[in-house]
Amino acid sequence: AVAKPDTLLAWYRKLIANKFDGSKFRKSSGRPRVDEETERLVVRMAKENPGWGYDRIVGAMANLGHRLSDQTVGNILRRQDIPPAPKRKQTTSWKDFIRAHMAVLVATDFFTVEVLTLRGLITYYVLFFIHLESRRICLAGVTRHPDQEWMEQMARNVTMEDSGFLIHRKYLLHDHDSKYCSSFRQVIEAGSVKTLALPPRSPNLNAYAERWVRSVREECLAKLILLGEGSLRRALRHYEAHYHEERNHQGKNNVLLFPLPTQAARGEQEKVRCRERLGGLLKYYEREAA
Predict the structure, then answer these.
(1) Architecture category of domain 100-250 in CATH
(2) Domain 31-91, CATH number (from 1.10.10, 1.20.120, 2.60.40, 3.10.350)
(3) pLDDT in tens, 23-78
(4) Following CA atoms 101, 102, 103, 109 in sequence, which dihedral angle do they give, to the nearest 10 degrees?
């Protein structure tokens, strides 16, 4: 078949293009990709700061000595399926919400304790509240039957105008346990506290409450044979005081949460006294007052 004029012109254009094609002399194709550390930093900044656009991230990276263009930042975020700032800042994760509202957030939870009685082992339910920022605990109640009437009374207790634990708080976190009935939530919200049910199967979002349950079990309850309800209440009362006043907290710079005032002044001749609770199960060391 005879070649058409368009075919001849196409061959000629290709011949010219090949003459000026320098691709075979290139060591790599396109702009080099940023290293993994830089990419991780960009992704971290975007996730931790939903309102930051490409230019803001470019500036923050420049502060750390990384020179990037806004296009490079955009390419990185697209590879990680992270939307641009206008879409990111419209949503707030539970983790970010909790972190931003620690001062006005309280969490609540239950745990159970087996108590030995004349009728055998009886299960008791312990309801408690914890202020997330200060870690202060409120042991609200102990019961064998956490029914609706009991829960309503607990709600009234913590929302009392003069001494309620929820005074000056705005939100109460709880799980989807059916014991947090609608009437319980209504009493809480009547006290100007918004109840927030956490997503199912998300214990990490109630980590402070979960950690306190672990502490009271491992440091106290698991080391006692509890004989009757009075024994359980006594153990909880002593542990609550120990937790607040005598126990150092690694999550709070390894200091006491609410230390009692002491008259002792530091000096070489001072004696160290060991204060004990529950027969020596809980110990606290202090210098004797002069």
Answers:
(1) 2-Layer Sandwich (3.30)
(2) 1.10.10
(3) 666 655 556 678 888 999 998 998 888 778 889 999 999 999 899 998 999 899 88
(4) 110
